[in-house]
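Need residues for this backbone.
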């Protein structure tokens, strides 16, 4: 089958959805499909044998951050996607099936319907916008990355999505010997390293980790923030105001292929999101490396981190509770080990790419069969 994965950010950013597109495309190529990724012009590439990558120009969402659009995140993302649409359409004309990963690409639906090309919409978030419910009728199937996201799509579109969890490359993300040089650089002389990966966006909640660090004055730890984005300046100011700037390392964006080394160099991996998060890809990858994890109580993490079983949970938006959870976990080596081993087992049971690809393949088969019956 000629499959196109259409997602602007796959070649422009590093993140959970982007990883999903690359790895699913890889698995589908291994199965003998002809796969193309259509994305925005950008520098990000991964070694994915058998997968073609085609890019199109677009106008970055930051250019639309004027006046009332400054905080209208969904509308800005939609405008960014629409700016790529004319050229992007030319790159999908030979597809037998198009798979999109954000609702902002639902405007492809009417064009694909005219050409009788099925469209699969895979929900990874909640970036809804005016008119998306009408456009969604052009989608032949809805997939969802988690049970939480499935409930969001069900409520928005009054359709039943198929839950297909995000996948983890369990060969790349596995327990590895610790890179002592990297560990020393991250620790900066501290005894403990707490890693928080993720783009700097308001709902990611990194500020709560900074406040937790300020509570832990007597614990010799260093907080390492791996990522970049819109709230970086705000976070830098907050770290200065809290008097902890020398205890925080701002790494910038780490290439995905290097993340396993960073997970192994950390004692605990933390996620602080307070909204929008629908799965927790970085947490699942850290768990595959047998690292103990702590996640906020945000419901989007529920499929990945089961409190007291595959990791710990703390009250969302509460730096004090996070500080308490960190203090307890760092003081208990046996609990860290238990979380680590249980976490990897959980990933192997639910999130391998073989499992993910098989679920997607089954939905594709149903879509093509339904199309054939209607024809």
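Answer:
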């Amino acid at each position: 089958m000629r499959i196109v994965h259409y997602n602007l950010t796959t070649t422009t950013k590093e993140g959970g959805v982007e990883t999903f597109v690359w790895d699913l495309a890889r698995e589908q190529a291994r199965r003998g499909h002809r796969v193309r990724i259509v994305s925005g012009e950008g520098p990000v590439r991964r070694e994915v044998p058998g997968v073609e990558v085609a890019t199109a120009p677009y106008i970055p969402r930051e250019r639309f951050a004027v006046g009332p659009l400054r905080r209208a995140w969904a509308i800005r993302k939609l405008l960014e996607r629409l700016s790529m649409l004319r050229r992007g359409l030319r790159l999908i004309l030979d597809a037998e099936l198009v798979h999109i990963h954000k609702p902002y690409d639902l405007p492809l639906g009417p064009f694909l319907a005219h050409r009788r090309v099925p469209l699969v919409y895979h929900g990874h978030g909640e970036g809804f916008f005016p008119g998306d419910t009408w456009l969604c009728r052009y989608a032949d199937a809805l997939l969802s990355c988690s049970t939480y996201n499935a409930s969001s799509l069900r409520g928005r579109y009054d359709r039943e999505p198929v839950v297909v969890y995000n996948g983890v490359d369990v060969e790349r993300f596995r327990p590895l010997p610790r890179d002592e040089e990297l560990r020393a650089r991250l620790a900066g002389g501290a005894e403990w390293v707490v890693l928080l990966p993720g783009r700097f966006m308001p709902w990611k909640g990194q500020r709560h980790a900074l406040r937790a660090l300020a509570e832990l004055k007597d614990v010799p730890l260093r907080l390492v923030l791996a990522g970049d984005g819109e709230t970086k300046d705000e976070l830098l100011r907050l770290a200065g105001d809290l008097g902890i700037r020398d205890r925080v390392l701002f790494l910038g964006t780490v290439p995905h292929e290097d993340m396993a080394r960073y997970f192994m160099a950390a004692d605990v991996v933390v996620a602080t999101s307070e909204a929008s998060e629908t799965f927790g890809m970085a947490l699942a990858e850290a768990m595959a490396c047998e690292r103990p994890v702590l996640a906020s109580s945000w419901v989007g993490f529920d499929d990945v981190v089961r409190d007291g079983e595959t990791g710990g949970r703390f009250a969302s938006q509460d730096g004090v509770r996070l500080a308490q959870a960190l203090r307890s976990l760092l003081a208990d080596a046996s609990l860290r080990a238990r979380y680590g081993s249980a976490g990897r087992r959980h990933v192997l049971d639910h999130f391998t790419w073989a499992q993910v690809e098989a679920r997607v393949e089954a939905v594709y088969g149903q879509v093509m069969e339904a199309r054939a019956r209607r024809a």
